[in-house]
């Protein structure tokens, strides 16, 4: 779980290392690390956030999934900055509190491919 500024620094460092191991060039490694750092700082609040990395062979793809359990949302400026760096970014907010309790899922997610 990511709960502190130090965790975000570690996320950035790990993202760059994983991107390098997955074969991304230096420019894309820095883009990914910068994007995750931006989102991490923006979403860092009292409730923990998790980051999951997955490498897919065919086609060669590195995916990162950020998840959090509450109703916070990334700021529009943060999302704009990240999608400029990584156009494949998808944000899915938590369902509205007006939805029936049986279908409500708390939290949100951002997927970067």
What does this structure look like?
The structure is a single chain. By secondary structure, this protein is of the alpha+beta class. It has one domain (5-112). The chain is built from 3 helices and 4 strands, in the order H-H-E-E-H-E-E. The chain has a 4-stranded antiparallel β-sheet with strand order 1-2-4-3, covered by helices on one side. Helix 1 packs antiparallel against helix 2 (26-43) and helix 2 (26-43) runs antiparallel to helix 3. The longest helix has 18 residues, at 26-43. The radius of gyration is 14 Å and the shape is globular. The model is unreliable at 97-105 (pLDDT under 50).
Descriptive key words:
113 residues; alpha+beta; 40% helix; 20% strand
Helix and strand arrangement:
Blueprint: H1 5-21, H2 26-43, E1 50-56, E2 61-68, H3 76-85, E3 90-92, E4 108-112
Antiparallel strand pairs: 1-2, 2-4, 3-4
Helix pairs in contact: 1-2, 2-3
Entry summary:
With 113 residues, the protein is α+β, with helices and mostly antiparallel strands. The protein has one domain (5-112).
Query: How many DSSP helices?
Result: 3
- Tell me the helix content: 25-40%
What is the CA–CA distance across the termini?
21 Å
Shape: globular
Tally of domains: 1
Number of strands: 4
Strand order of the largest sheet: 1-2-4-3
Structural class call reads alpha+beta
* Rg value: 14 Å
Mean pLDDT score: 84
The description of the largest β-sheet is: 4 strands, antiparallel
Low-confidence parts lasting 5 or more residues at pLDDT below 50?
A: 97-105
Could you state the oligomeric state of the chains shown? single chain
Order of helices and strands: HHEEHEE
- As a percent range, the share of strand residues is 15-25%
């Amino acid at each position: 779980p990511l709960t502190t500024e130090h965790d975000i620094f570690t996320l950035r460092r790990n993202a760059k290392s994983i991107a390098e191991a997955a074969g991304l060039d230096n420019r894309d490694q820095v883009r990914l690390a910068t994007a995750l750092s931006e989102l991490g700082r923006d979403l860092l609040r009292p409730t923990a956030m998790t980051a999951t990395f997955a490498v897919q062979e065919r086609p060669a793809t590195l995916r990162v999934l950020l998840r959090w359990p509450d109703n916070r949302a990334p700021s529009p400026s943060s999302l704009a900055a990240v999608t400029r760096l990584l156009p494949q970014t998808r944000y899915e907010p938590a369902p509205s509190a007006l939805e029936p309790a049986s279908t409500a899922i708390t939290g949100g997610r951002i997927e970067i491919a």
